[in-house]
């Protein structure tokens, strides 16, 4: 008789040989969870793929993997989503160089098991560390706004903390971004979170942290890597991601219209029409549904709307 929830952990790797084994072992060490790990190697040029093969031989019932050409973390994780098993209870994203506390998944699953929503997702904050796992600070999400509009404006939760159910995965798989320009492509975690909010799913946000999240000079994410990288990141978000929100809004309306409630459809209509007439732009600029809880993120969203980049 099945007593534990099955969680499939989706991990994309790229030149991660230094920390990979430690991270995988921390995932396999999860308490009260039936763990499966699916790894896609994104064209590593170091010894990462060999390490993955060795791990798969050591844990043949727990680890499956495949490799492909380097396509970037967004497309790599989306490929993992498409190849994820349809038999697991829950799914989670994992970075290649973090360390998970052994109760990370059991806490997430417990939070999701007690609610009756059809579509549900768990996320938390993280402990930010240096490359040697020295804790620098806990990421502050006290002012997080848990709404569909906030998700469209700015993704603030770390994908490596996500746990989501099979029904939500099935909805996510309805959207295909293979031919989308890179600057219009949402992140894998941003897509899952936004879709969950779009279809009126349940999102539990835990202010506790269960991951030691390494921040290194080579990290894809910007936080904790210095002021210059942060400024560049914010500049790119504001000016170099033209129409990414509009494109995503169009995809949501096109592919998931039957699942989206009326209020969320109205917000999507505002976004799709804001370039057509000044009154639509003014309405979107003043729509409080886009509030993220962060002054700078709200300002950047308004700048993008004014410039027609949203």
UniProtKB/TrEMBL annotation:
Signal peptide: none
Natural source organism: Lactobacillus crispatus
Cross-referenced InterPro entries: Glyco_trans_2-like, Nucleotide-diphossugar_trans
Pfam families: Glycos_transf_2 (PF00535)
PANTHER family assigned to the protein according to its UniProt record, in alphabetical order: GLYCOSYLTRANSFERASE (PTHR22916), UDP-GLCNAC:BETAGAL BETA-1,3-N-ACETYLGLUCOSAMINYLTRANSFERASE-LIKE PROTEIN 1 (PTHR22916:SF3)
Molecular function, one GO term: hexosyltransferase activity
Domain of life: Bacteria
Protein name as annotated: Glycosyltransferase 2-like domain-containing protein
All residue ranges annotated as the Glycosyltransferase 2-like domain in the record: 9-113
């Amino acid at each position: 008789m099945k007593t534990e929830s099955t969680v499939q952990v989706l991990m994309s790797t790229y030149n991660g040989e230094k920390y990979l084994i430690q991270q995988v072992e921390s995932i396999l060490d999860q308490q009260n969870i039936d763990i499966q790990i699916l790894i896609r190697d994104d064209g590593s040029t170091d010894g990462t793929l060999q390490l993955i093969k060795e791990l798969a031989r050591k844990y043949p019932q727990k680890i499956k993997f495949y490799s492909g050409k380097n396509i970037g973390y967004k497309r790599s994780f989306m490929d993992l989503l498409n190849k994820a098993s349809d038999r697991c209870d829950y799914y989670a994203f994992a970075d290649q160089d973090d360390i998970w506390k052994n109760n990370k998944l059991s806490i997430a699953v417990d939070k999701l098991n007690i609610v009756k929503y059809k579509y549900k997702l768990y996320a938390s904050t993280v402990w930010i560390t240096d490359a040697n796992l020295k804790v620098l600070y806990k990421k502050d999400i006290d002012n997080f706004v848990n709404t569909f509009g906030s998700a469209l404006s700015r993704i603030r939760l770390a994908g490596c903390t996500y746990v989501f159910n099979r029904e939500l995965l099935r909805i996510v798989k309805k959207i295909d971004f293979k031919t989308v320009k890179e600057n219009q492509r949402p992140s894998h975690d941003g897509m899952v979170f936004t879709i969950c909010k779009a279809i009126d799913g349940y999102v539990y946000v835990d202010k506790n942290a269960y991951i030691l999240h390494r921040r290194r000079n080579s990290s894809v994410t910007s936080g904790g890597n210095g002021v210059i990288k942060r400024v560049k990141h914010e500049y790119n978000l504001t000016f170099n991601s033209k129409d990414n929100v509009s494109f995503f809004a169009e995809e949501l309306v096109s592919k998931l219209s039957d699942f989206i409630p009326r209020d969320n459809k109205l917000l999507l209509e505002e976004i799709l029409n804001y370039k057509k007439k000044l009154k639509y732009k003014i309405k979107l600029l003043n729509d409080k549904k886009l509030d993220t809880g962060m002054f700078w993120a709200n300002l950047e969203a308004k700048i993008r709307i004014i410039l027609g980049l949203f």
